[in-house]
Q: What sequence folds into this?
């Protein structure tokens, strides 16, 4: 709609400009020529009317097409939200199950029961939303089966515990059957999300093509309208004075502009802020009728709070002809609203300012929902941090008692019993690593940032020395580019560089002549800091799993790890406004690169 409005405004200006020269041109025509042109005027007027009708019908179709695209996107958003809610409900089921099995506290059965009920409701909801897609329906059927299996598995373990067999219940949990079902559920959900994103992509492309075709049509129609109007005005304006032509053209221009603006939340004011036009959209948003608003200063009427000094905004408007931002305003009822605003400076002539057109969109609710989502994510991170932190004490106790049994009573145990104790200790150590990883992942998004200049080259050299000293038997060719500096939180950036260098060290452990490089490269206007090695590498077909927590591309017996480091690195880099990616090939090494804000006064030549 805004595009159509803008085109109509531009075409109206073109019509006015065209009228300025037609009168003088037709003075040279003979009486015979004028008679012929009068006959043509009726034809031109008919063609002009026909093109105008087509143009108007095309403009009226724009909101309909826009609504269709918005409906499809909202439909996909609902499916994505329902599938994510399903995973959350199943997480509640698992939390209730494990909490009850570990503590025998029946309060844990409340989230278990609610999660089980919610899971089935969400399955029905997703099935209804995807009723038009046979492929998604098949996945919903598979998902429903897996969810029922998961509910049955958790219910069985709880039943065993209630029947006085807690060891059997815990043994059932340790069998990893439930985890395999959850992995299947996540796989199906991921496939459904991928399919919905693919469909949205197709629909967006189709919408863009339709918009492009519509824009082409509008532009062509505008040109046609302009040509017809020039001819008609030339014929009809022969006997009119130049001042009359300009006055009538300006009046037509103003009426067209006001008619279009009345459909939007827009108003027109002079450079002093006095309102000259107040649309019905403004009336609906702010509560003031045109009789109450016209003539008053818009900033005073709406108690506008600017994000910048008003003088600075006016200077930008004067130099650029437009300004976009967000304003806090107050309605007639006293309600505070946040609007995304677009100011356009409309000039009467090439160098003299005329009026300012302000178009506003109420984004109060959207910002509120964004804040709620951010708060929910923060609470989730805080919960993960608290859970991981509280797991440390029982883990230490479990490992400590296992070691004590081996050391104090090892001679009394049979070999199989010793093996079991060793496996308990090994599992406890691995779980401790996972807990440490969860804490690191949580800190990567929870910690306060105190950015400063960082010498990345010196940081990389120090970490390289520490890694080499921990395993002095290995000989690695370290190549660190000097004078690489950036701006960021030192402790967080050290974690990023350390994770990448330690990964390079780990994945070159089986390479005859290992090489690890830390350097910079520029792509377009972005400078990337890179860690490259000639180690095991990986298949880029699985690169989408690289930065997901607890996701790994190699087996634990090949290259041990938790799958936390890259996820934490990505979150830290994103918090700094940068990006991180990777390129690799199996057996040919890998290169990870990330971007940061450059240190002030630093110029890097990779």
A:
């Amino acid at each position: 709609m805004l595009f159509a409005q803008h085109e109509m405004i531009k075409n109206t200006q073109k019509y006015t400009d065209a009228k300025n020269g037609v009168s003088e041109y037709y003075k040279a025509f003979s009486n015979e020529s004028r008679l012929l042109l009068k006959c043509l005027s009726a034809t031109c007027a008919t063609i002009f009317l026909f093109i105008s009708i087509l143009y108007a019908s095309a403009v009226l179709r724009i909101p309909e097409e826009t609504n269709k695209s918005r409906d499809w996107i909202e439909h996909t958003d609902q499916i994505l939200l329902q599938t994510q809610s399903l995973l959350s409900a199943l997480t509640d089921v698992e939390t209730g199950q494990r909490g009850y099995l570990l503590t025998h506290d029946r309060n844990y059965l409340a989230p278990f029961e609610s999660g089980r009920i919610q899971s089935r409701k969400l399955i029905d909801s997703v099935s209804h939303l995807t009723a038009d897609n046979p492929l998604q329906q098949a996945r919903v059927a598979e998902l429903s089966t897996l969810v029922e299996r998961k509910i049955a598995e958790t219910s069985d373990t709880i039943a065993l515990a209630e029947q006085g067999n807690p060891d059997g219940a815990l043994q059932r949990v340790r069998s990893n059957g439930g985890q395999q079902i959850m992995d299947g559920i996540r796989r199906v959900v991921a496939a459904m999300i991928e399919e919905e994103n693919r469909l949205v992509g197709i629909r967006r492309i189709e919408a863009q093509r339709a918009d492009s075709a519509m824009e082409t049509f509008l532009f062509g129609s505008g040109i046609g309208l302009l040509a017809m109007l020039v001819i008609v005005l030339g014929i009809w304006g022969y006997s009119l004075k130049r001042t009359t032509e300009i006055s009538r053209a300006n009046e037509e221009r103003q009426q067209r502009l006001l008619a279009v603006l009345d459909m939007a939340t827009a108003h027109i004011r002079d450079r002093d802020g006095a309102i000259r036009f107040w649309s019905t959209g403004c009336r609906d948003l702010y509560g003031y009728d045109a009789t109450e608003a016209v003539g008053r200063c818009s900033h005073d009427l709406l108690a506008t709070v600017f994000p910048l000094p008003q003088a600075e905004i006016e200077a930008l408007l004067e130099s650029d002809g437009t300004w976009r931002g967000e304003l806090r305003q107050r309605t007639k009822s006293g309600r505070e609203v946040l609007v995304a605003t677009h100011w356009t400076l409309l000039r009467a002539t090439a160098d003299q300012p005329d009026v300012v057109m302000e178009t506003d969109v109420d984004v109060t609710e959207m910002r509120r929902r964004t804040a709620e989502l951010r708060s929910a994510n923060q609470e989730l991170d805080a919960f993960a941090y608290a859970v991981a932190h509280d797991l440390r004490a029982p883990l230490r106790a479990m490992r400590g008692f296992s070691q004590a049994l081996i050391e104090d009573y090892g001679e009394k145990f049979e070999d199989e019993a010793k093996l079991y104790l060793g496996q308990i200790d090994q599992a406890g150590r691995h779980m401790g690593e996972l807990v440490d990883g969860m804490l690191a992942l949580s800190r990567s998004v929870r910690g306060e940032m105190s950015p400063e200049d960082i010498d990345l080259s010196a940081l990389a050299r120090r970490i390289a020395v520490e890694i080499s000293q921990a395993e002095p038997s290995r000989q690695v060719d370290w190549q660190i580019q000097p004078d690489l500096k950036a701006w960021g939180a030192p402790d967080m950036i050290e974690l990023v560089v350390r994770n990448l260098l330690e990964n390079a060290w780990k994945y070159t452990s089986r390479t005859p002549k290992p090489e690890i490089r830390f350097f910079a490269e520029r792509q377009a206007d972005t400078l990337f800091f890179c860690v490259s090695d000639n180690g095991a590498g990986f298949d880029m077909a699985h690169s989408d799993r690289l930065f997901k927590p607890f996701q790994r591309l190699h087996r634990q017996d090949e290259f041990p790890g938790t799958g936390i480091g890259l996820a934490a690195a990505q979150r830290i880099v994103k918090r700094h406004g940068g990006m991180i990616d990777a390129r690799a090939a199996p057996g040919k090494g890998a290169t990870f690169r990330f971007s940061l804000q450059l240190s002030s006064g630093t110029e890097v030549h990779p």
